[in-house]
From TrEMBL:
Cellular compartments per GO CC: plasma membrane
Descriptive protein name: ABC transporter ATP-binding protein
Membrane topology recorded in Swiss-Prot or TrEMBL: Peripheral membrane protein
Coiled-coil regions listed: none
Biological process per Gene Ontology, one example term: peptide transport
Gene3D superfamilies with a match to the protein in the record: P-loop containing nucleotide triphosphate hydrolases
Stated family: Belongs to the ABC transporter superfamily.
Organism: Kribbella albertanoniae
Transmembrane segments: none
Keywords, alphabetical: ATP-binding, Cell membrane, Membrane, Nucleotide-binding, Transport
InterPro entries assigned: AAA+_ATPase, ABC_Ni/Peptide_Import, ABC_transporter-like_ATP-bd, ABC_transporter-like_CS, Oligopep_ABC_C, P-loop_NTPase
GO molecular function annotations of the record: ATP binding; ATP hydrolysis activity
Compartments reported by the entry: Cell membrane
């Protein structure tokens, strides 16, 4: 359904052009949930915004392709892209307050989408919105429909956002840290809601998170991002049982301390994500990697498919011999 091939996204800044996403490739089948996981600044959100065509004015996709049902979203004119966005592809953001219009009632903004995309009348749209609000577990939907966003709790607003995302029966939902701003109990409820609804409707999902508990709960497949690149991709069981990339292994080590605040989980890896303005040469992880070899400092590893493994790719020189050059996702998709 979705094939991202060799995506490179750049931003113009005062200090020059920075590459926020580089050589990112992955694919997603209908109904699948792919988690993009990594520290903040690893390029997860920029990848999502590139797919949606919602990059800031100073950003652009400089290279690569984003094939959605055989249309390349990179080269598609904005008018057609707008048709796909909010129709076939919907997005759920971390903070619903920024995506809900504060001066419109919940009913009015959800109706707007439904009227625009499904061509319903006002009265039909209102009925449909009440149905949707009930579906996402909002109590008294026939009253809430006339409330303004600020009257709702954070959890209820996020439910309203999910209702909005679902209102056009999208084929793909991109959710960027959808529960990070919520307390733990509400987080679990919202995640369960998203999972149940996407299973029910067969919607594929890209779920962005830095939380491995969320990954374990939600993912079919996982792509681990580091410094703007995918460093490993596999199905969720393989990734948790047999992580290969030293960065993924370090991430996994932080799992047992699930109660540790998210920001501290990677304390076991010394150093921090490199600045986009000063990307290390060679492997971008080499300054933090306990296994770094001489070649890691100079040669950039490619994302290679591990031989004998079904769709398990890793970007690390340690697996050079075990990999099958020429069969990487990146190469196949390029
Ligand atoms: Fe570590 Fe080298 Fe592998 Fe990079 S390529 S993760 S530095 S071993
Ligand atoms: Mg982000």
């Amino acid at each position: 359904m979705l094939q991202v091939g060799n995506l490179k996204t750049e931003f113009r800044t005062d200090q020059g052009t920075v590459t926020a996403v580089d050589e990112v490739s992955f694919r997603l089948a209908a109904g699948e949930t792919l988690c993009l996981v990594g520290e903040s600044g690893s390029g997860k959100s920029v990848t999502a915004l590139s797919i949606m065509g919602l990059l800031a004015d100073n950003g652009r996709v400089a290279h690569g392709s984003i094939l959605f049902e055989d249309q390349d979203l990179v080269t598609l004119p904005e008018r057609q892209l707008r048709g796909i966005r909010g129709n076939s592809i919907a997005m759920i953001f971390q903070e619903p307050m920024t995506s809900l219009n504060p001066v419109l009632t919940i009913g009015d903004q959800l109706s707007e989408t439904v009227i625009l995309h499904l061509g319903l009348s006002r009265a039909q749209a209102r009925e449909r919105v009440i149905e949707l609000l009930a579906k996402v577990g909002i109590p008294r939907p026939e009253e809430i429909v006339d409330d303004y966003p600020h009257r709702l709790s954070g959890g209820m607003r996020q439910r309203a956002m999910i209702a909005m995302a679902l209102s056009c029966a999208p084929k793909l939902i991109i959710a960027d840290e959808p529960t990070t701003a919520l307390d733990v109990t509400i987080q679990a409820q919202i995640l369960k809601l998203i999972r149940d609804l996407s299973a029910e409707t067969g919607t594929a999902m890209i779920l962005i998170t830095h939380d491995l508990g969320v990954v374990a709960e939600m993912a079919d497949r996982v792509a681990v991002m580091y410094a703007g690149q995918v460093v490993e991709e596999a199905d969720v069981f393989t990734l948790f049982d047999e992580p290969k990339h030293p960065y993924t292994i370090a991430l996994m080590r932080s799992v047992p301390h699930i109660s540790t605040p998210a920001g501290d989980r990677l304390a076991s890896i010394s150093g921090s994500v490199p600045s986009l303005l000063q990307m290390p040469t060679g492997c971008r992880f080499h300054e933090r990697c306990p296994h770094a070899m001489d070649r890691c400092r100079d040669d950039r590893p490619e994302l290679l498919q591990l031989s004998g493994q079904n769709r398990h790719t890793v970007r690390c020189w340690l697996y050079d011999d075990a990999a099958q050059p020429g069969t990487t996702d990146a190469k196949v998709l390029a």
